[in-house]
Design goal:
Elements (H helix, E strand, L loop, with lengths): L8 H20 L6 H15 L5 E2 H8 L3 H13 L3 E5 L7 E5 L1 H22 L6 H11 L14
Antiparallel strand pairs: 1-3, 2-3
Helix pairs in contact: 1-5, 2-3, 2-4
């Protein structure tokens, strides 16, 4: 059993996630965004790279694996900050289309190096097991890893 409260690995995972988020909040604070705001903004940037067209809000939530209602709330604050635009989707009047602004693109491009560096530093103790750790996290999220995971015997 793990050494977390009650001997549960979930508590250790929660503590590690909180520690990672504190580090991400520190690196993102100078840019004026939270980790979840950056997640959605960078996700929108990634989706926009594949065509430059607005994407449905629900598509962004799926891409980032976030709750659609929370995504909507966070996107409203990003819109107020001028980092993205929201509008009724021209193809589906029930859907909201989102598009990153030049200001949003600039923020993502300025922040990405610090985000990647902080993430790499946080995960450095796992360097020898980084891919396996990533695969394990994907499995916990219900996603089949892209690499074949070897079964352990014994």
């Amino acid at each position: 059993m793990a050494d977390g409260p009650g001997g549960l690995n979930g508590y250790l995972l929660w503590q590690a996630a909180n520690h990672w988020q504190r580090q991400m909040r520190a690196v993102l604070a100078p840019h004026g965004v939270t980790p979840v705001q950056y997640l959605l903004l960078s996700g929108l940037f990634e989706l926009g790279e594949s065509g430059g067209m607005p994407v449905k809000q629900v598509t962004l939530a799926r891409h980032c694996n976030t709750d659609p209602m929370m995504t909507s709330q966070v996107l409203r604050s990003l819109e107020k900050a001028g980092l993205l635009r929201r509008a009724v989707n021209s193809e589906d009047r029930r859907a909201i289309a989102v598009e990153i602004t030049e200001t949003g693109v600039s923020l993502v491009q300025r922040a990405i190096a610090g985000v990647r560096e902080t993430d790499a530093r946080f995960h450095a103790p796992l360097a020898a097991h980084g891919e396996a750790f990533g695969d394990a996290l994907q499995m916990l999220c219900g996603v089949k890893p892209k690499r074949r995971v070897r079964a352990q015997s014994g």
